[in-house]
Structures are given as C-alpha cells and as structure tokens.
Amino acid sequence: MGYYDIDDILADGTRFPCRFNYDVPGLGYLEGNPGRPISKNAKLELPLWMVHLLAVVGAQSNEDSRVEEPLPFVELLPPDLFAPRVLNAIKSGATSLDLHSISPHFYTLAEKWATLFSDKELSQVLKDMLLERGQEINNHAISVSMFSNCNQTNDSAVFLQTLDEFEKTIYRDTNVNCKEMKKWLVLK
C-alpha cells in the first residue's frame, strides 16, 4: 500500500476499543468532557492510528518505580472484528462469509492487528481465508471475462457484494488480466 492509499487511510480511521492505563489531564474531550482528565481504566474507542501510537509509547509510572519498562498509555482491547465467533465463522466457511459487512477494510485491519500483536493464529486464519476466497474470486472474475456477453448470475452478484476492498482489487485485477489474456490469444 502506498503513502496516499485511500483504503489504508480509511482503515487507520477505524475505531478500536482501548483502556487508559493512566490518568491523563486535559484529554477529557475524547470522552466528551472538555477540560477534564481521562481517568485510569477509562474505556474508549479511538482511531487505529491514535491507539497504535498510544499503545506503543509508554510513560513512567509514579506508582511503581521498580518497573523498568514503562507501561503504555493505553491497552488495546480485542475488537468485535476479531472476536472468536468471527474467526470461527471464517474457519467454518470463508466463502459464505459477508466480509464487507464485518468491515470494508477487513484484511488491512487484520494485517495491522496481527503485526502489532504478532498474532500467529490470526495470520494463519487470514492466509487460509485468502486462499479459499481467492479461488472463488478467481472463478467469478474468469467467468465474467470469458462470458462477457451473458448477464451475471445472481450468485455471482451476491458474492461480489460480500468482498472487502482488498478482495475487490484482486477481482478487478484478475478480471482485467483475463480480458487481456483473451485478447492476446485471439491475436496469436
């Protein structure tokens, strides 16, 4: 993804739940209380770009000076996006899942989450899901480009609406490449 990739920017704006580990003066406006502090253990939903920074940067705690590594400002809480029920649904049948309704930027967010927490299980689930859904995306892209005179079937249209933005890019690229291959074969 590039520096100005709109999908990456939109994914970074997705709100994730977090819990503050410190009392922070002057940030009450994040809770809707301007001029007041955010209290310790306050739970908020903040954009991913902000939560990521606050989860990495730590502050020195006055409570326990023996701790060598500073506690980060916030602790990221697992979002509903990666809840066990969602992961189980992916494992049981990734092609039947409406990924767009879960999040339009599911793959981007999952990649960032797995990288941030070194989550090997999530990475494996994503890999398996991409392989399974990728085959289905390829089948739909090829069938549309091969039979461009025919109308799309209802199943194909429904499946295409369940794709997230990354999968839509894969679909478009596959479709264009199939059309180019078809042209090349005709010329040969």
Written description of the protein model:
The protein is mostly helical. The protein folds into two domains: 6-76, Methane Monooxygenase Hydroxylase, Chain G, domain 1, CATH 1.20.58.2050; 80-187, Up-down Bundle (Methane Monooxygenase Hydroxylase, Chain G, domain 1). It is built from eight helices and five strands, in the order H-E-E-H-E-E-E-H-H-H-H-H-H. It has helices at 6-12, 48-56, 84-92, 99-102, 106-117, 120-146, 154-161, 165-187; strands at residues 15-20, 43-47, 58-59, 71-72, 74-76. The protein has a three-stranded antiparallel beta sheet with strand order 2-1-5. It has a two-stranded antiparallel ribbon with strand order 3-4. Helix 5 (106-117) packs antiparallel against helix 6 (120-146) and helix 6 packs parallel to helix 8. The longest helix is centred in the last third of the chain and has 27 residues, at 120-146. It is elongated, with a radius of gyration of 22 Å. This is DNA replication complex GINS protein PSF3. Belongs to the GINS3/PSF3 family.
List the helices and strands and how they pair.
Elements: H1 6-12, E1 15-20, E2 43-47, H2 48-56, E3 58-59, E4 71-72, E5 74-76, H3 84-92, H4 99-102, H5 106-117, H6 120-146, H7 154-161, H8 165-187
Helix pairs in contact: 5-6, 6-8
GO biological process, one term: mitotic DNA replication initiation
Pfam families: PSF3_N, Sld5
Subcellular location: Nucleus
